[in-house]
UniProtKB/TrEMBL annotation, chain B:
Entry's family note: Belongs to the ABC transporter superfamily.
UniProt cross-references to Gene3D superfamilies, sorted A to Z: P-loop containing nucleotide triphosphate hydrolases (3.40.50.300)
Residue ranges of every copy of the ABC transporter domain listed in the record: 13-244
Keyword DNA-binding: no
Name of a matching Pfam family: ABC_tran
Natural source organism: Streptomyces sporangiiformans
PANTHER family per UniProt: ABC TRANSPORTER, ATP-BINDING PROTEIN
Keywords recorded for this protein, A-Z: ATP-binding, Nucleotide-binding, Transport
Gene Ontology MF terms: ATP binding; ATP hydrolysis activity
Matches recorded under InterPro entries: AAA+_ATPase (IPR003593), ABC_transporter-like_ATP-bd (IPR003439), ABC_transporter-like_CS (IPR017871), P-loop_NTPase (IPR027417)
Protein name: ABC transporter ATP-binding protein
């Protein structure tokens, strides 16, 4: 069963692991199989639902008001987030659990492959809203980006905490409940889901920027594989029998 | 740790004091072992900690305490873990696949994840391992169209790709029919030539036929480590035949001949019979573990 075609296991690696050139080659080789393995169906479902919600702004006979368009776009972002909650679902997770290519690179590649789709989706969602009814696009784009990254962070946390190879459904349920409950239950002093035109609009969007930054940090922290178990192993469920 | 029989003089894998808990359940309790070249069988009842040990040694999950090395690499650092993974092939208990991938595409994908970036060399290697597991004819078939046994062979091919020096196989023959199991035994025996294979199994026949060493685990601890012959020898003088199940026997069952085979401490004048590996294994466990 011999016939080595890869670097020998005991061949010394560069000090920082794979060189930049080798990582580039890896990424190029991985693009196609990773793209093929992405959960396109839930992503497409979430995206389509989001576009339908955005298109709902055109159903108002007397033209849509910006505050109503804002609600539509927030709901559309949540729908797209539900699809993103499936992004790290990987039926081959256990089979590829101990490969040398790091999880951060694999998960990052998934995000990178979906990012252009997400940008195109958001562009389409905005165009579906009548121009006269569009809320401030920069601020709403920030909200949508934060929602999307929160969904990705939830997906990364699910992968980190559970052994389940495809935790997307449970993650999407958590994202949905959180997305619906947060605007209703969040204390009034927490400025996040503010109405258009109120004084606290700018303050709210500074808060959204913090949410986005926090979600990115959570995603990275959950995606990096720990060499040691944190806090005596509370963070992981036991393997299935 | 129990350590009987000869231990490998130059271990490929060496572990000391491995501990791991899931909540209040101690899955691994001070496990130490040394593995050399060849196939080592890992036996134990359900919940013994076999899968957890394999997952720790395969770097799928870090241990709470203890240390181990694989082919001289220490997975306690990011760099060391990377080096271990480059030398590792792992077939998990429940291998998963991208069902729309062909067998070739899936093994090729795993080969890329094992850092084989040269396309033509990689494809040669993928063809080699698919040929080795007898899947050359169906390499273009989607995995969802393959039988359970074939899928298991795809998983074995994925573990073998890149010619790893340490192969970890978690119950690879579960769910296979006898013919497929024989085929798998051949594959594992071949894989054990010149590399270290750790094979977790419930099948004592697998161990008897394949393994040059055996480890018995129960309750997260190593109960026995030695050769299959040494494990069988543990039951010498402690297996007897009778017309009824002996109440003092640790285990007893009616055989095809109608006589009862009893394992435990025999009464005076018992009709002793030749022990098997399974008898030795049963005697290594506590009565409650045998019942389980």
């Amino acid at each position: 069963m011999r016939g080595v075609t890869r670097p020998a296991a005991d061949e010394p690696l560069p000090a920082a692991g794979l060189g930049r050139h080798a990582v580039g080659g890896l990424v190029r080789a991985l693009v196609l199989p990773v793209a093929r393995g992405l959960p396109w169906r839930p992503l497409a479902a979430g995206g389509t639902l989001g576009l339908l919600i955005a298109a709902g702004t055109r159903l108002h006979s007397d033209g849509v008001q910006p505050w109503l368009a804002l609600l539509h776009l927030r709901a559309a972002a949540l729908a797209f987030g539900l699809g993103l909650a499936f992004l790290l679902d990987d039926p081959a997770r256990h089979t590829t659990a101990t490969v040398p290519v790091r999880r951060l690179l694999r998960a990052g590649l998934r995000v990178a492959l979906v990012a252009p789709v997400a940008v195109a989706w958001w562009g389409a969602a905005v165009l579906l809203v009548p121009a006269e009814g569009r809320p401030p696009l920069g601020d709403v784009t920030l909200e949508v980006a934060a929602t999307a990254v929160l969904a990705l962070a939830a997906a990364a946390a699910a992968v980190r905490l559970w052994e389940e190879p495809e935790p997307g459904q449970a993650t999407a349920a958590v994202v949905l409940v959180t997305g619906v409950a947060a605007p209703l239950l969040m204390p009034g002093r927490w400025t996040l889901f503010v109405r258009l035109g109120v004084d606290r609009w700018d303050e709210a969007h500074r808060a959204w920027a913090w949410v986005l930054a926090g979600a990115v940090l959570v995603w990275v922290a959950c995606t990096v594989e720990p060499v040691r178990r944190p806090l005596g192993g509370w963070s992981r469920s036991s393997p299935r029998p | 740790m129990t350590s009987l029989g000869t231990t490998p003089s130059v271990p490929s894998v060496s572990a000391a004091g491995l501990c791991l808990s899931y909540g209040s359940t101690r899955a691994l309790d001070d496990v130490s072992l040394r593995l050399g070249h060849g196939v080592t069988g890992l036996l134990g009842p359900n919940g013994a900690g076999k899968t957890t040990l394999l997952r720790v040694l395969a770097t799928a999950v870090p241990a709470d305490r203890g240390a181990f090395t694989v082919l001289g690499h220490d997975p306690g650092t990011a760099r060391g873990r990377h080096d271990v993974r480059r030398a590792l092939g792992y077939l998990p208990q429940t291998p998963g696949f991208h069902p729309d991938f062909t067998a070739f595409a899936f093994v090729d994908y795993v080969a890329i994840l094992k850092e084989m970036t040269d396309r033509s060399a990689r494809h040669r290697e993928v063809r080699r391992v698919l040929d080795a597991v007898g899947l050359s004819d169906v390499r273009g078939k989607r995995i969802k169209r393959l039988s359970g046994g074939m899928r298991q062979r795809v998983a074995l091919a994925a573990a073998l790709v890149g010619d790893p020096g340490f192969l970890v196989l978690d119950e690879p023959t579960v769910g296979l029919d006898p013919e497929q199991r024989m085929r798998f035994r051949e594959l594992i025996a071949t894989a054990g030539e010149g590399r270290t294979v750790l094979l977790s199994t419930h099948q004592t026949e697998d161990v008897a036929m394949l393994c040059n060493r055996v480890i018995v685990m129960a309750g997260g601890r190593v109960r026995f480590e030695g050769t299959p012959a040494e494990l069988s020898a543990r039951a010498a003088g402690r297996v007897w035949s009778s017309t009824q199940r002996h109440p003092g026997a640790k285990a007893g069952w009616r055989t095809g001949t109608g006589a009862f085979r009893n394992v435990g401490d025999p009464p005076d004048g018992a009709s002793l019979v030749e022990p098997t590996l399974e008898d030795g294994y049963l005697l290594t466990l506590d009565a409650s573990e045998v019942a389980a």
